[in-house]
């Protein structure tokens, strides 16, 4: 019995890892980058300091967008490799 992955499976796995890596990099920049550079982000945004706004509201919006983008891209990848659940 041959348990070696096919080229199609390897391509799917590489694309899946690259999508995850890019979105994790975005998560890292939002989570740690804004906190690290908060003093440099010292300008007013809708009457509040921008660093406060990003930390309190913007990060959650970006996290929700990351989940949505991941679901969309993985559904497209599944369809491209005939792995969709339909």
Sheet having the most strands: 2 strands, antiparallel
The secondary-structure element order is HEEH
Low-confidence stretches: none
Tell me the domain tally: 1
Helicity level, as a percent range?
over 70%
Q: Treating each run of at least 4 consecutive H or I residues as one helix, how many helices? A: 2
Secondary-structure-based class equals mainly alpha
* Rough outline: elongated
Portion of residues in beta strands equals under 5%
Please tell me the overall pLDDT. Answer: 85
Please characterize this protein's 3D structure:
By secondary structure, this protein is mainly alpha-helical. The protein has one domain. It has 2 helices and 2 strands; from the N terminus they run αββα. The chain has helices at residues 7-36, 50-80; strands at 44-45, 48-49. Strands 1-2 form a two-stranded antiparallel sheet. The radius of gyration is 19 Å and the shape is elongated. The two termini are 29 Å apart. The model has no long low-confidence stretch (mean pLDDT 85).
Q: What is shown here, in short?
A:
This protein has two helices and two strands, in the order αββα. The chain has 86 residues and is mainly alpha-helical.
């Amino acid at each position: 019995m041959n348990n070696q992955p096919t080229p199609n499976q390897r391509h799917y796995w590489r694309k899946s890892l690259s999508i995850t890596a890019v979105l994790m990099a975005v998560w890292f920049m939002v989570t740690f980058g804004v906190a690290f550079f908060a003093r440099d982000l010292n300008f007013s945004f809708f009457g509040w300091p921008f660093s406060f706004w990003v930390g309190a509201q913007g990060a959650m919006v970006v996290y929700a967008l990351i989940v949505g983008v991941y679901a969309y891209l993985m559904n497209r990848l599944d369809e491209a490799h005939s792995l969709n659940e339909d």
